Each structure stands twice: as structure tokens, then as C-alpha cells.
Amino acid sequence: MNDLRFAFRQLLKNPGFTAVAVLTLGLGIGANTSMFSMLNAAMFPHLPYPDSGRLVRVYRTSPQSQALSHSCANFLDHREQNHVFSSLAAYYWEGFNFGSTAQAPERLTAVHATADLFPMLGIHPTLGRIFNAEETQPGRDPVAVLSHGFWTSHFAGDTNIIGRTLRFDGESVVAIGVLPAAFDCPMLWGNVEAWRPFVITSEERSNVENRFLKRSRTDWRGSMPIMMPAPVFDCSLWQSRCRPMHRVEARGSCLDSRILFC
User: According to the model, what pLDDT value does residue 14 have?
Assistant: First the structure.
């Protein structure tokens, strides 16, 4: 206390120095606050989905990596035994060639996702519909939901695109919907032109040794399951039910948060 009294007396005796010190501190604090606000908005923007602050990722870890994917079998086990989250979905990226036999193919990117993904994120299509759970079963007719950017750049926003047959990797794929422009989020998905059903085969359902959701035939870029929990989520509860190789990374508070399971 004596030191504080002495310091205050010295400041009162030197008003010019005190004014300069206070002004310097104020400018420094203000500049740092402004810089943090700008960088936070630029580098960590909110995702364009309802309650995006509740989205969290869960990774499988190992001594070699802290952000590994999961096998299809493990993902299905997590979804079946889930008593914590309100929904659970998975997706992976895959490159594909787009074009007809008369055109030079264009290399684009598709995301294959389970039917839970779009309802979980609160997304409704601008045109048509999204794929359903039946269309994620093996043997179904191939369908795709187009991104808004792909729809406008390659089809000039043609509203008659629904039901049209497109060629992806030489395969006939029916366009069933178009996503809203707000859904495009390169920070999370990258540049994606089409969204397709995540089809899990009977072999993949039983193969727990495979440590990846999918390895696509070409241009595999990674995979990541996603979860959204119940309204109140306790990280310690989920960690106690996971194997030691799993960790929880919360983007935002851990309580009352959605989950991205990676």
C-alpha cells in the first residue's frame, strides 16, 4: 500500500508525465482492441448457419496426428449408440470430372454427405429438394444437389435444372436441388460444386480396421463426420464414452454446443 501511495503522489506531482502515460496506455489498449476485433472477424467468422456457435469438431487422434478421420463402421456405431447429441452426420470430399462426351471434362469437387447433414445445419434448398436417407443406400439412382455458385456459373441460374441429367465421371447423375448462396462456406467446406449422398456399403459397415470414412477413386482430400448434440452437452460425458484416441475440440463454449465429429 505504501508503494501505491508513493506512486500516486509522484503522478500527481508530475501532471505532464501522467497525461502522456495515460494517453499512451489508452492508445495502446485501443489499437490492440481494434486489431483483435478485425482479425477475429476476418480469421474466425461465424458460419452462415443457425446457432453456428454451437458447432464443434471431434477428431480421432494418434501419435502421428491430432486430426484423423474415422472408419464408416465406427461412425455408424457412434450414431447408433449416441445418447448425447440430437443428430449425427458424416461427409467426405471427392474430385470428379464434369462434362459430356462432346466437351473437355472440367475437374470439380463434390462432397458426399449423409442425409442428416442439411437438416442438422438448418439448411433448405433454393430449388428442388435435398437427398433423403433412402438415396444413401447402395444401388439407388445417383443424384446430386448443386451449390448455388455452380448453378449460376455453369447453368446461368436456370430454374429448369431440377430433374436434368448431368455427367459426373462419365456417370449419369440427376440434379434434384440447388442450395442457397448463403450455404457456400469455403472456410469450412472449400470450393464445392455438388453435394451427393454418402453411400456406405455392407463391407464398409463391418470394416472397423479402415481408419477413413472413404478413399475416393481420385483426388481424395479428406473426410470428417459431423455431430450436433442435444441442447446441453457436457464434454466430460462424451469424453468418458470415447476411446482414448478421441479428443473434443470445442469452437465456442462446451456447454450448449453443437458438435462436429472429425
Answer: 83
Domain around 11: 2-43
| Grid cell digits, residue 12 | 500527481
How far does CA 26 lie from the centroid of its chain? 39
Domain match, 153 and 190 both: yes
133 and 13 both lie in a single domain: no
> Same domain for 126 and 235?
yes
Tell me: do 35 and 66 sit in the same domain: no
Query: CA–CA separation, 223 vs 212, rounded Å?
Result: 7
Among 246, 262, 206, which residue's Cα sits nearest to residue 73? Answer: 206
* C-beta of residue 174 within 8 angstroms of C-beta of residue 142: yes
| Total domains present in the chain | 2
Find where cell 500527481 sits. Answer: 12
Q: What is the pTM of this model?
A: 0.68
Q: Please check whether residues 31 and 88 belong to one and the same domain.
A: no
Please identify which residue in the block is written with the cell numbers 474415422: 70
Q: Is residue 132 within 8 Å of residue 115, measured between CB atoms?
A: yes
**59 plus 141 within the same structural domain:** yes
Q: How confident is the model at residue 244 (pLDDT cuts 50, 70, 90)?
A: very low
Q: What distance in Å separates the CA atoms of residue 239 and residue 56, rounded to the nearest whole number?
A: 14
Shared-domain flag, residues 95 and 160: yes
How many Å apart are CA 165 and CA 100, to the nearest integer? 11
Q: Could you tell me if 233 and 172 lie in one domain? A: yes
Q: Amino acid letter at 189?
A: W
C-alpha cell at 146: 448443386
> Which among 48, 4, 65 has a CA at the least distance from the CA of 245?
65
Lowest pLDDT segment from 80-84, 106-110, 156-160, 243-247: 243-247
- C-alpha 108/C-alpha 173 separation (Å) is 15
